[in-house]
UniProtKB/TrEMBL annotation:
Similarity comment text for this entry: Belongs to the NAGSA dehydrogenase family. Type 1 subfamily.
GO molecular function: N-acetyl-gamma-glutamyl-phosphate reductase activity; NAD binding; NADP+ binding
Organism: Rhodovarius crocodyli
Full protein name: N-acetyl-gamma-glutamyl-phosphate reductase
GO biological process terms on file: L-arginine biosynthetic process
């Protein structure tokens, strides 16, 4: 029997990518699509390439009290817009929240699927990590778990494609003319992803992440996110690589690479690529993580988490190779 799935925020970039993955998922059946401004439109008018089996769906006005029978709901709403409404979704409906309202919130599990799948299995309320944390924490986890770096001295320099800002981005200074051939730092010292990154670093290391520095940049590409992370530690490159190979030995979506990863390696997939370079003489360890911000950074991770909470094989519906070039 198929699992009845709803997506709220389906007209957005994160929700649209969730729809693409759900449409191809062998165990999921999309039965409910919802939104705000797009309510009343046919899904096929929003997504002309929609598979024929979904052509009958009309985007409904989001109302947690008027859901059809559902097993699973993906919420891809602007951060700040989901907490109150999702609290009214019946407990019988499993939820994966792609937005930021429930990360490290009471009653919700932080869905860092590649690092702690055992925490996610059996839960019904999952908060997907933000896109920058998805790349950063995946790269750092093996080093923190083996004590190869100091948790209190981590500097993250990250770049994201413009789709990271969502469709709403076009009205907030992220239009073509402003982003094309431009490189934009933002969110200095106060980006909303700092708390979830600090909390996870502390959980994985048992130490304080007090010195964390994070600078995101917008780069002129559609998808892709790369985090270059500078740490203090005396490990060699080979020790870091070996730690990551051990940590991710049986994890299907993380690739530990000798070459520094590139964003295009992950495009359209749920993969995360990690690599390391270290110089013990300089007390320096560099970690690099590359993901698709809409894949591992949003909808891919969300489907992985949904598989885990639905008791399905973790890789179901996520086995397609990345788009290249
Ligand atoms: N883009 C990315 O790479 C990532 C995004 N995220 C997070 O995912 C969430 C969605 O982001 P993204 O898809 O990029 O954003 P978009 O701006 O592309 O989409 C936002 C969606 O939310 C819907 N929406 C807005 N307000 C309401 C409301 N009051 N009721 C119902 N629906 C509403 C919109 O629907 P309508 O058009 O019908 O108004 C639209 O479908 C955000 O929290 C974002 O931070 C997380 C990781 C990565
Ligand atoms: C380019 C851009 O604006 N990117 C977003 C990241 C998207 C994301 O992960 O957002 P949530 O944490 O809200 O889910 C940002 O920096 O806020």
């Amino acid at each position: 029997m198929s699992i009845r799935v709803g997506i709220v925020g389906i007209s957005g970039f994160g929700g649209g990518e969730a729809m693409r993955l759900v449409a191809a998922h062998p165990a999921f059946e999309l039965v409910y699509a919802a939104g705000e401004g797009s309510a009343g439109s046919r899904l096929a008018d929003r997504f002309p390439g929609l598979p024929a089996k979904l052509a009958h769906l009309v985007i409904e006005k989001w109302d947690p009290e008027a859901l059809p029978p559902l097993d699973l709901l993906f919420a891809s709403l602007p951060t700040g817009a989901s907490a109150e409404a999702l609290a009214r979704v019946p407990a019988s409906v499993k939820i994966v929240d792609i937005g930021g309202d429930h990360r490290y919130a009471e009653g919700w599990t932080y869905g860092l699927g590649d690092v702690w799948p055992e925490r996610i299995i059996g839960q019904t309320r999952i908060a997907n990590p933000g896109c920058f944390p998805a790349a950063t924490l995946t790269a750092l986890a093996p080093l923190l778990a083996e004590g190869l770096i100091e948790p209190g001295n981590i500097i993250i320099d990250a770049k994201t494609g413009v789709s990271g800002a969502g469709r709403g981005g076009a009205t907030s200074g992220f239009g073509y003319a402003e982003t094309n051939e431009n490189l934009i730092p933002y969110g200095l010292l106060k980006h909303t992803h700092m708390p979830e990154m600090a909390a996870t670093i502390e959980q994985l290391s048992g130490g304080s992440a007090a010195g964390l520095v994070f600078t995101p940049h917008l780069v002129p590409m559609t998808r892709g996110l790369l985090a270059t992370i500078y740490c203090r530690g005396r490990a060699t490159t080979e020790q870091c690589m070996q730690a990551a190979r051990r940590f991710y030995a049986d994890r299907p979506f993380v690739r530990v690479t000798d070459k520094p990863p590139q964003t295009k390696w992950a495009t359209g997939s749920n993969l995360a690529f990690v690599s390391y370079a270290a110089d013990p003489a300089r007390n320096l360890v560099m970690a690099i993580g590359a993901v698709d911000n809409l894949g591992k950074g949003a909808a891919g991770q969300a489907v992985q988490n949904a598989n885990l909470i639905c008791g399905l094989p973790e890789t179901m519906g996520l086995e397609g190779a990345p788009v290249w070039p």
